[in-house]
Amino acid sequence: MSKLSAADILSQLIQFDTVSRRSNLELLGWVETYLETFGVKSRRIYDDTGKKANLIATIGDPTVPGYILSGHVDVVPVDDQDWSFDPFGGEIRDGMVLGRGASDMKGYVACVLAAVPEMTAKPLATPLHIVLSHDEEVGCIGVRTAIAEIAQWETLPKGCFVGEPTDMGVIIGHKAKRAERVVIKGFTAHSSLAPTAVNSVEYAARLTTFISDLGRNLQKNGARDPYFDVPHTTAHVGVSHGGSMVNIVPNHTQIDFEVRAISADNPAELVEQVRAFAKETLEPQMQAVKPECSIHFETLSDTPGLDTCPDADIVATVKALSQKNNHSKVAFGTEAGLFAEVHIPTVVVGPGNIDRAHKPDEFIKVSELEGCSLFLSNLIAQCV
Ligand SMILES: [Zn+2]
């Protein structure tokens, strides 16, 4: 394999259907072969199934603090979406690369890989670490094993760039997100005998009201972070399933709710308030009728927020590299908070626009890839 443009590499990457539920090993195999062409060794960190892995490659001296270039290679599904082209065709047309993941976020990964010949052309005084992850789109799951390993390195990287699509804007923060599933087990009976039963839909409704009141209170009285369009923490119920017939008292209801928190609020504490209401107020009432009734909580995902100090070195560095002097925060979650959690200063900066993500006819402009490549060239020049 010789030198390829970011657009050519992206076209290749798109052709590997790496929807989160599938294996990403074929894509990683392609990346490994590509890296080997330039003498770069890489390692895989497998998940428990052995069907997916993260990939880490270091260019330069690993005993010197360097920068991480991080991106996920899984994508969201295309099921039930109306595409006007093949989402996994990787077609390049009219100055755009077309397909699932073009913006979110194989485009950035392609730019990083396209820059590898430049990274290896001259010795790097500051090393660069390429970190590719799996299962980001299902709760930032995959990257955690890679970060756990990096956190054990003798020399911690001095910064990390997560290339989610920000139109190359400098993003220093996003909210933390915690999602919970609640299963309410009531007691069934014919509806004519309703008082002898425990209606799971009714208890779920009371819990739902508690969660929406919590959200309303945060909106009215909660802490503020003016960087966000919705400048406060939110809480909402997104799923509610229960009951089958109007003449049967339902005994099984499930609700899924989430909290998206600014850094002033702790999502675990907010979830604990919900749990306490369920366990201390609702469950005793249910069990007074039938002791076997219960309310059970399960955490579906828990991703820390990002709140990098605007004065941090990494922010100044990224502004200089991208020739921007402003920074902002974004509504969507990323893996960045997980890097920050192990004390690696992190910013989100990448090509393309989040508005195209997760939708049909996803694309990225070749000019956007070129903008990112310029950013990486500037970074490499600084690292030489
Ligand atoms: Zn993404």
TrEMBL record:
Record keywords, A-Z: Amino-acid biosynthesis, Arginine biosynthesis, Cobalt, Cytoplasm, Hydrolase, Metal-binding, Zinc
Query: What biological-process terms (Gene Ontology) are attached?
Result: L-arginine biosynthetic process
**Which top EC class applies here?**
hydrolase
UniProt record similarity statement: Belongs to the peptidase M20A family. ArgE subfamily.
Report the domain of life of the source organism.
Bacteria
- Which SUPFAM superfamilies is this protein grouped with? Bacterial exopeptidase dimerisation domain, Zn-dependent exopeptidases
Give the Peptidase M20 dimerisation domain ranges: 172-283
Give GO MF terms, alphabetically.
Answer: acetylornithine deacetylase activity; metal ion binding
- Its gene is argE
Give its E.C. classification number.
3.5.1.16
Kindly list the cofactors needed. Zn(2+)
What's the source species for this entry?
Answer: Parasedimentitalea maritima
Task: Give the taxonomic lineage as stored in the record.
Answer: Bacteria, Pseudomonadati, Pseudomonadota, Alphaproteobacteria, Rhodobacterales
Name this polypeptide is given? Acetylornithine deacetylase
